[in-house]
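Hi U.,

Before I forget, here's the chain from the pilot set. I'm dumping it here mostly so it's searchable later in email.
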Amino acid sequence: MDVELPVLPFALRTYGPDGHWSFEDGILTGWAGSRQDRFVPPTGEALDPASDAPRLLGSPVGDFQLIARVTVGFNSSFDAGALYVHVGERAWAKLCLEYSPDVATVCTVVTRGHSDDANSFTVDGSSVWLRVSRTGRAFAFHASRDGERWTFVRLFTLGGEKETEAALIGFMTQAPLGEGCVVTYDHVEFRPHWPADLRDGR
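Structure:
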């Protein structure tokens, strides 16, 4: 199923379980069902083939920034809405607003065979602004409480330049322990360039 967002210069397609994705009046809405998550434990357990979460992804060309304000209907620990980067089945990353485990937290996961997991800062309420950027082989994650002042969260690579150019970018929802949650994304914005400075707050 394809979903069109007029502000994005690339098409979006659904992946994984049905996220009931919809876009209306500038708001993208997705739903994570019970026990849906995307994580490959670094402690060595095999990934459950059924372990997946709803994703809505497309393939932008060149350098870019994808920005959205993410609001999560928290019900259970680790419910989250995320911006997501996919290079391969075991090469992907997500920038989340997550209930982790009892307070809204900006966190990141980068998966290269297995996933890591790192928390950044806590958020009052259930909304935060997230941004993923790309240039060459590099990706960057930023987050903001107000959409104006940005906190640098992470800089990383997932593969070679050719794989990175073909990366899928977009949105993901998850509810690893609970019965499901609804996530909305508004103020979605696309910028066709890399940030001038990753650490100056712009």
